[in-house]
Amino acid sequence: MSHIAWLSKKLEDGRIACEACNQHCKLQEGEYGICGIRKVENGQLRLLTYGLAAAMNVDPVEKKPMFHFLPGSKAFSFGTVGCNFSCKFCQNFDISQYPKEHHHEVFGRSLSPQAAVDLALQNECQSIAYTYNEPVVFFEYTYDTAKLAHEAGLKNIYVTSGYETHKAIDTIAPFLDGMNIDIKSYSQSFYKNICGASLKPVLDTIEYAHKKGIWVETTTLLIPGHNDSEEEIRAIAKFQADLDVSMPWHISGFYPMYKMKDVPPTPPQTLRRAYEIGKEMGLKYVYVGNIDDKARESTYCPGCNHLVIERHGQIGQYVTNRLINTNECPSCGTKIEGVWR
Ligand code: SF4
User: In terms of CATH, what superfamily is 52-301?
Assistant: First the structure.
């Protein structure tokens, strides 16, 4: 379904500037943005996937991953086709890159904002997650849904590559409770050559969203030989520690995918070493993902090291929250940062 993409403005030269993401597309009549789903038609920028979900599921919120956000709850999760990045390792390339690889075709099941909220409530979800592809490219659809979700008592989560403009964040911030933002690498050449983007805007988004009071967790997928050097892992951890040591960092294992099928999976020891580096740099909450490692998937009190949230089994399968008074360690009373209700 096509809908006006109102996060845009008309330029003096007649082009339309999309204001959703830091690709900053300036488009003439008939042109598509880099994401492949925003197009100028009849002098207006249009979003071609409004109300058209290419993927939807009821997922544990831990799968987003969000570990300090209503632990053990379910998130109604959906996304559309299209993406502003072109990561060669994308796990959802069949939807994210679909328009770019199929002459700007789009597909999806009809899902209005109200229907998304209704399904979330029917499935006893406590949040809606905009995920699978980059949410900011279907910004107006997320905005309308998030607003209705808040009215219904649900929280909202963006699972994102972190390329939102300040204007996009300012606009959705009243309804956006959490973000999981990828730090895909600490190298500009990685972002440029592997993702079709830049590093700096991502770091800026993390800082800006955090400053706005949105709960932020970050994720780094470690890809052997590409972003897994000790130096680079340390640089990511340092960036995050300098910003806020209580921001959770998820380190996740790669498996061969899309245009990087020739790269081997991440060895478990690399993930464990990255975990140690995160801790050495002072991060209070570091987690490993995509390997079975209960000890490094659980939350420990930074005050006394007591196990406060235990996670094991498949992701989100067994979550035992031992916090008392909503956010306190039962052993020493230290407050654990997060969104707990
Ligand atoms: S959302 Fe799409 S059209 Fe808008 S700036 Fe980003 S890539 Fe370009």
Answer: Aldolase class I (3.20.20.70)
